[in-house]
Amino acid sequence: MTLRTAQIAKVDSLPKNYTEYNPLAPAKAAFYSAVLPGLGQAYNKRYWKIPIVYAALGVSTYFIVDNQNEYTRYRDAYKRRLAGHTDDEFYGRISTEGLINAQKQFRRNKEISILVTLGIYVLNIIDANVDAHLQQFNVNKDLSIHPSFDVNEYSGKANYGLSLNFNF
Fold first, then answer.
1. Could you give the dihedral angle defined by the CA atoms of residues 131, 133, 135 and 140, in that order, rounded to the nearest 10 degrees?
2. Residue 41: how many CB atoms within 10 A of its CB?
3. In the chain, where are the structural domains located?
4. Is it the case that residue 4 has pLDDT exceeding 70?
5. Any idea where the DUF5683 domain is (predicted)?
6. Rounded to whole angstroms, how far apart are CA atoms 132 and 27?
């Protein structure tokens, strides 16, 4: 039997549920997730992850908007106090120094929220890529551990052991 016939016989003996390895699938899934978050998860047929991606992005975006609105409220009140007005919503409750500190706090919170949102976006892309990589591994139920018993030819004693068999 020549090498060519052995290769043909090997290809013919593939199981029916065999799917061909696609080396570009992880890159494609990552690209889809970069274009539209959750699209890479849909490409990988992991539909249950899509609501998680959008919930995480939605919550972090909510905190960006909320911190920006609060920052604007305190900044406007501070500007009115600098202009000499005494009718801002915080007058009598928060000092001018307190308005400055609140602006710093909400600006910092907004910046952290932006970083968290970018992190979630990147994790979405990484998840799609890794999931596409892991789908290409053959994880069937044929993996098994079998005990083995062997007799030593020279001493006549029994050798015991375990064997782990992988079929490639």
1. -130
2. 24
3. 25-139
4. no
5. 23-168
6. 8
CB 80 within 8 A of CB 90: no
- Helix 96-135 and helix 50-82: axis angle, to 10°? 160
* Amino acid identity, position 7: Q
The DSSP line for the chain is --HHHHHHHHHHT--TT-----TTHHHHHHHHHHHSTTHHHHHTT-GGGHHHHHHHHHHHHHHHHHHHHHHHHHHHHHHHHHTT---STTTTTS-HHHHHHHHHHHHHHHHHHHHHHHHHHHHHHHHHHHHHHHHTS---TT-EEEEEEEE-TTT--EEEEEEEE---
Return the amino acid letter for 27: A
Span 142-152, pLDDT tens digits: 656 666 667 77
| pLDDT tens profile 21-33 | 777 789 999 999 9
Of 161, 141, 137, 138, the closest CA to residue 151 belongs to 161
